[in-house]
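Hi C.,

You asked whether I'd gotten around to modeling the 353-residue construct. I have! Everything is below, sequence then structure, no commentary in between.
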Amino acid sequence: MIGTILIFFIIFFVIVMGHEFGHFLLAKTNGIKVNEFSIGMGPKLAGFEKGGTEYCIRAIPIGGACIFEGEDGLQKEKGDSSQEGNFQNASVWARISTVIAGPLFNFILAFFFAILVAGYAGADIPVLGDVAEGSAAQAAGMQAGDKIIGFDGKICLAREISLMMALNPDGSPVEVVYERDGARFETVLTPKFNEEENRYLVGFVNYAQYEEAKGFSLFKYGWYQLRFSIKNSVLSVISLFQGKLSADDVAGPVGMAQVVNEVKEAAEPGGPMLVFMNMVNIAMLLSVSLGVMNLLPFPALDGGRLVFLLIEAVRGKPLPPEKEGIIHFAGFVVLMIVMVLVLFNDIQRIFGI
């Protein structure tokens, strides 16, 4: 278990570091002073100061921070030339680029991980191995060898079909586009309830055909992996707000550590390389999730800050910085309460309390 905890902290450190480095790099580029660059939250465990920035590691592994001079709006008013490097004194587009750089760097980091995963495992191309007897796919005339290119929207990987069906618990009709012998066909499949599987199915059997990723295809299949991960995260968030997912489908640091442990144990019989690549895959998914979650338009998150900055860009003048600071502080308090509830739920689920 100690090995699992160490792996989890390494993954956490890398993806949070990538996120905060994005903010840090664009802040420096735009002449904004960075007061603190930290990984984790809560009490400081270790750190040092260099170039006017304090670099530190904090005790609670639930995030990080890149704190800019004047970011909270409580310093002197914008326009005071004596405040060199004040966040509020930078142009609105400089601030927008600085804020959005964190999530963007998460996606860039995830793309690098996705290329590694594609190079090792290849890609699952959606080609039918067969169709189930009496299924909607059979009734529509689909057959083995059909390549699926659309399943309620364009798809590139077989796992996208699994994702879309998982988010379709009521068996709503699905628009399917497929190719056969160079010709394109379209049909609408109405999933049928499968008593044995206890869910709705369209009747696709063995629909993942694996292809190696070499040369330029590494980037293509890496992009497919990244695209799927972003789609998965976005649709999962939407489904959570729609009530299609429950609290048990949400995990905090403890829940993520448990997932890391389960994946590690399942991969160990395949050797160290398989374990390593599974950890890279988890890092990719978590990096994407961090990027997507931070873009949500909620106060204290990057997405919430972007809302205020975009309003400023449209109005031509900012909202009162001190009021914005209060709103973000309130959002931060709400986020901390949510994190505590998620942590409590993780502990309940793991220990069966």
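If it helps when you're writing up: The chain is about 50% helix and 20% strand.

Thanks,
B.
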